[in-house]
Design goal:
The protein is globular, with a radius of gyration of 18 Å. Helix content is 31%, strand content 22%. A five-stranded antiparallel beta sheet has the order 8-7-9-14-15, with helices on both faces. Strands 1, 2, 4 and 5 form a four-stranded antiparallel beta sheet that branches. Strands 3-12-11 form a three-stranded antiparallel beta sheet, with no helix packed on it. By secondary structure, the protein is an alpha+beta fold. Strand 7 and strand 8 form a beta hairpin. Bound molecules: 2-amino-4-trifluoromethylsulfanyl-butyric acid and cobalt (II) ion. The site of cobalt (II) ion has 5 residues, from loops. Cobalt (II) ion binds next to loops.
């Protein structure tokens, strides 16, 4: 979402705290999002159009008996945002055919209705088209895509793989930081640290997009607080049991400046270089955190950080 510009009003805006029962409803919505992601991962392949993938997403949501929270959101025309290569976020599905080697993010959500209110889930992942998806478990134990892809420049491919893995790692590091940290600012610190460390190892510096940030989530998709992926001056809200946050780092290969297409949605890097995006919705509870949009509650992804999530199922 776009960060709020209200200064104090936004910073101090009330953060919705969920009861244990409400967290279980949010987990239901989270599991719907998991099943959309699984359907998209199974379908993505060279030659498929992004419109066909929106149909896959819509069918998965319908099968779950849930409702898309993207479709119709400020008139957004699809159930999923599919952002290819230089598109950072909010790519609209259409006639674009995916090609081997494309770096593509899929961002989607759904809500379930319980006792007359909506409970939302929102998550995103990126893939390189033509490659098998690396599970959270394999990713956590250091497995990375390798080998060549027919017709794809090996330098382009290497950097896309690094950018994708870096963004995924920055998300998990941020989620783990919420388990051990005291304030929302744990997210920005974690992402910056992972990005800085990677720069030293891989020899190029990734940019952290600032124009779009994570957000609170609950009875609507976008709620206070903003969840920044970078450090800022000033104190941020204290983490409290019952908070649910959508954490969504967006990293780029080049400069963070972005432009928006005439469709008023598609946001791309101004310099035309690649972007990646990963997102999970995470609950803060008395006993620990729970990643609502991961099938295993985040157990595999958080393990390298010594964090064991609490179960809500
Ligand atoms: N996950 C996206 C975000 O938080 C939601 C996109 S809204 C839609 O920015 F309208 F594009 F669907
Ligand atoms: Co979001």
């Amino acid at each position: 979402r776009h960060p709020g510009f209200g200064g104090l009003e936004v910073t101090m805006a009330r953060i919705e705290l969920k009861s244990a029962e409400e967290l279980r409803w949010m987990r239901e919505a989270g599991l719907v999002v998991v099943s959309i992601h699984e359907a998209l991962r199974a379908a993505v392949a060279p030659g498929i159009t992004t419109r066909e993938l929106d149909e896959v997403s819509a069918a998965a949501i319908a099968d779950s008996g849930a409702t898309s929270n993207f479709l119709g959101y400020y008139d957004y025309p699809a159930t999923v945002c599919i952002s290819v290569n230089d598109v950072i976020v909010h790519g609209i599905p259409g006639d674009t055919e995916l090609a081997a080697g494309d770096i593509v993010s899929f961002d989607c959500g759904a809500y379930v209705e319980r006792r007359g209110r909506q409970w939302h889930g929102d998550a995103a992942f990126s893939v390189i088209v033509g490659e098998p998806f690396v599970s959270d478990e394999d990713f956590a134990s250091g497995v990375r895509a390798s080998g060549s892809l027919p017709g794809v420049d090996e330098n382009v491919l290497r950097e896309r793989r690094q950018l994708n893995a870096l963004t995924r790692e920055s998300l998990w590091s941020a989620l783990a930081a919420l388990a051990t940290g005291k304030r929302i600012s744990a997210v920005g610190s974690a992402v910056e640290e992972v990005v800085a460390h990677h720069g030293e190892i891989n020899g190029w510096e990734a940019g952290i997009v600032e124009e779009f940030v994570g957000h609170g989530i609950g009875t609507s998709m976008h709620m206070p607080p903003d969840v920044l992926n970078y450090r800022v001056r000033g104190i941020q809200a204290r983490l409290k049991p019952g908070m649910v946050l959508a954490v969504e780092p967006m990293l780029v290969r080049g400069d963070i400046a972005s432009i928006t297409d005439d469709d008023e949605w598609t946001v791309r890097t101004a310099d035309g270089r690649d972007a990646a995006h990963w997102e999970h919705s995470i609950a803060i509870t008395e006993d620990g955190v729970s990643v609502l949009t991961a099938r295993d509650g985040g157990a595999a992804g958080l393990a390298p950080y010594g964090v064991t999530p609490v179960g809500l199922d």
